[in-house]
Specification:
11% strand, single chain, NAD(P)-bd_dom_sf, Fatty acyl-CoA reductase, 17 helices, seven-stranded parallel sheet, lipid metabolism, two-stranded parallel sheet, oxidoreductase, alpha/beta, globular, 504 residues
């Protein structure tokens, strides 16, 4: 690792480089693409691998989902009329997918890329906690395999940056270290995680489902077939995750992806960046900009619309959150620090719970203050009154509340419906579906609300210590959580960002 770095070192590193980025249409991907283009206009090329039937469709996706977003307003203003031409010269959209061998690219394109790529950044992931097991394995596990196979063909490759999640550690208590996951390692004692066995299991279950469906449904029932398979794959993912000690399919498959990366990387320099819950941009280019609802934003949106009277959380617990731009700053610094370190594999926690913990109460009080000072106005033009929210400090209390308030009335409605020959069937089915959905959310998201772990970030702290923060330019690459005033950030940046970008 370099002994000292500053903004000039980081900016200089990306000059003339060719970079392949997966997951560029996602939140972090967009921030990274914009940052590189803005701070280093002399980057050679940024290749963005996106799903598309052909190059024109991939280019259209990049334009609409990445370049045309508000995030690029600062760069758009800086470049003026030459903005679009600059982007077209630097950004190349590739129609492909990491779930396929050769990344879904034709051989001539693959060979040309292999001669040119200096850095690979893998951000692509399916982040659905309750996603299909087969899809999650394809993207979060097999995608890593296919990228590793391509990386080994790249003659000029200096670095493979892989973005994971801090929660691959599961929901342990105490200090959680920045260390790789060993092959076979699982979170439940007495179990051995065999990735190949999990891949075989999915193939076998899908084969059985196909045989069962073909004998049960006719050809015209393809929708039912797909629904049955989708439900079965979702349930299998949760079942396997919990069998090995993880809470959901997303963190389970991301953990497997890390293991596979460690096994297949060879002597390629690898950095694994594990952010915790990523929140809106704090500093640049657009404070408050965000995409996609994070766990904590459910509280903010529900509170803003005043349709959420209670939530599952202990306000004294720490919610480990980190702004998206700080994660990207850490990624860029780490790429520079470990470039061309043959055989290196470094794990970084981009987190805040150790250096600058923020409790759920800080978020709630910031929300109360924001909405009292800036009350929401409904579609009818009337002010939506800001009410207090009740928080359940245990899952057991929440379950009791749901039984007394919703489950028992539902059972009574079910009985009345039977006595009236199905008169209330539509109402009962609708309410019962909503009740089950809420309980599923609690089941999947509950562990985050009561997480008692603390992520050690000693590796990232060592990287921070190499950073010179002497000039305003150096602040462009700040990734120190100690510099965040959480109350100010939530009140003035994050919550207004949620209102602007998520509450449309």
């Amino acid at each position: 690792m370099l002994d000292a770095m500053d903004a000039a070192t980081i900016v200089g590193y990306f000059k003339g480089k060719s970079i392949l980025i997966t997951g560029s249409t996602g939140f972090l991907g967009k921030i990274l693409v914009e940052k590189i283009l803005r701070v280093q206009p002399d980057v050679h090329k940024i290749y963005l691998l996106v799903r598309g039937i052909d190059e024109p469709s991939a280019k259209q996706r990049v334009q609409q989902e990445v370049i045309d977003t508000d995030l690029f307003d600062l760069l758009r203003e800086k470049r003026g009329k030459g903005f679009q031409q600059f982007v077209e010269e630097k950004v190349v959209a590739l129609a492909g997918d990491i779930i396929h061998d050769n990344l879904g690219l034709e051989t001539p394109m693959l060979e040309a890329l292999a001669k040119e790529i200096d850095v690979i950044v893998n951000i692509a992931a399916t982040t659905n906690f309750y996603g299909r097991y087969d899809v999650s394995l394809d993207v979060n596990v097999m995608g890593v395999k296919h990228l590793c196979q391509f990386a080994k063909q790249c003659a000029r490759l200096k670095m493979l940056m892989h973005v994971s999640t801090a929660f691959v550690s599961g929901f342990r208590e105490g200090l959680i270290l920045e260390k790789p996951i060993k092959p076979g390692e699982s979170l439940r004692e007495g179990t051995f995680l065999d990735i190949d066995a999990e891949l075989r299991l999915v193939r076998e279950v899908k084969k059985q489902l196909t045989m069962t469906n073909s004998s049960t449904y006719s050809d015209k029932d393809d929708t039912d077939n797909n629904k049955t398979e989708r439900t079965a794959m979702k349930e299998l993912g949760l079942q396997r995750a919990r069998h090995f000690g993880w809470s959901n399919t997303y963190v389970f498959t991301k953990a497997m992806g890390e293991v596979l990366l460690g096994q297949l990387r060879g002597d390629i320099p690898v950095v694994i960046m594990r952010p915790s819950i990523i929140t809106s941009v704090r500093a640049d280019p657009v404070p408050g900009w965000m995409q996609g609802t994070r766990t904590i934003d459910t509280i903010i949106i529900g509170y803003a619309k005043q349709n959420l009277s209670c939530f599952l959380a202990d306000l004294t617990f720490v919610m480990d959150v980190i702004p998206g731009d700080m994660v990207v700053n850490a990624m860029m610094a780490a790429m520079v620090a470990h470039s061309e370190e043959k055989g290196a594999q470094v794990v970084y926690h981009s987190t805040s719970s150790l250096r600058n913990p923020a409790t759920y109460n800080v978020l709630y009080q910031s929300g109360r203050r924001h909405f009292y000072e800036n009350p929401r106005v409904g579609k009818d033009g009337k002010v939506i009154p800001t009410k207090e929210m009740y928080f359940f400090p245990t899952i057991a209390r929440f379950h009791l509340y749901m039984i007394l308030t919703y489950k028992i009335p539902l059972e009574i409605l079910h009985l009345v419906n039977l006595l009236l020959c199905g008169f209330f069937s539509k109402l009962y089915n609708d309410l019962n579906r909503k009740y089950k959905f809420v309980m599923l959310l609690v089941d999947v998201y509950g562990p985050f609300a009561f997480f008692k772990g603390c992520f050690d970030d000693m590796n990232l702290e060592r990287l921070r210590l190499t950073m010179a923060m002497k000039t305003p330019e150096d602040q462009m690459f700040n990734f120190d959580p100690k510099t965040i005033d959480w109350d100010e950030y939530f009140t003035k940046i994050h919550i207004p960002g949620v209102i602007k970008y998520l509450c449309k």
